[in-house]
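Let us work through a complete example step by step.
Step 1: write down the sequence.
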Amino acid sequence: MQKYNDIVLKTDLPLPQFIRGKVRDTYDLGDYLLIITTDRISAFDVILPCGIPDKGRVLNQMSAFWMDKTSRLLPNHMVELIDDVGSLDNYIQPDRRFNYPSYLSGRSMIVKKAQRISAECVVRGYLAGSGWSEYQEKGSVCCVNLPPGLIESQKLPQPIFTPTTKAEEGHDMPMNYSELEQLVGNELASKLLDKSIELYSHALSIALKQGFIIADTKFEFGVIDGNLSVIDEMLTPDSSRFWDINNYSPGRPQDSFDKQPVRDWLSNSGWSKNPPGPELPADVIQKASERYREAFERLTGQRLV
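Step 2: predict the structure and record it as tokens.
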């Protein structure tokens, strides 16, 4: 039997590999892609040598939840969430089929191929994180001017669009709207702005009913059959800042349902934030895993597959 850490750190399927990212391993099935969301975790742009149990299933199934909820607003790349590995036979040619490992269940998705747009579309509805730091210094967030007198974690008068570059390695870099227009053209830039705000606002209205605030999030888009479509992950704890509405109190940092316990431990560990990353203590791993699962089950109202 394959050991847990062997699974979360690297998949090894007898299929052509399309790309291996920080968290996801993607395989080329010809007409489609098989995306496997592992339990790998990265912090400060470094992949750590340990995994967070169930993290991959949470990210995969939460993305599927939101893609279903927003498909009427904009198409997405999802074809099927794999909860029964036998259904992979529908996408893999007979001469390439193999004994599919059970860990693929719940953490895998069949998606359409897309022409990726090389920008990350960030929407901020609340003043937090790096946005709060910049606002204190400049009165703006990523070149978007904001009213004076706002406080940390305050809801913004309206959501703002703050795109970044899409870096293959290292940090994504902020860019202003004019730079986005230069990158993708005026028409597409306008559509990215409008659809990002629309998707965020719709998701926020759903999350509030479940007791969560989505403070900010980032979307990735591609073109499929000539149509702008959501790709990659969507509205997960790795791409969004989720706050419990019952504990929300403007004027201070909020407790986020993401990998914050990992970041906190690393920041206090004396680690230089350069590779290689340290092993996490068992209690930190357990706490992070519990937060991921709680975010999924409370926000979606579903049991984790």
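Step 3: interpret the result. The helical segments are 4-9, 55-70, 129-138, 177-184, 186-209, 260-268, 282-300.
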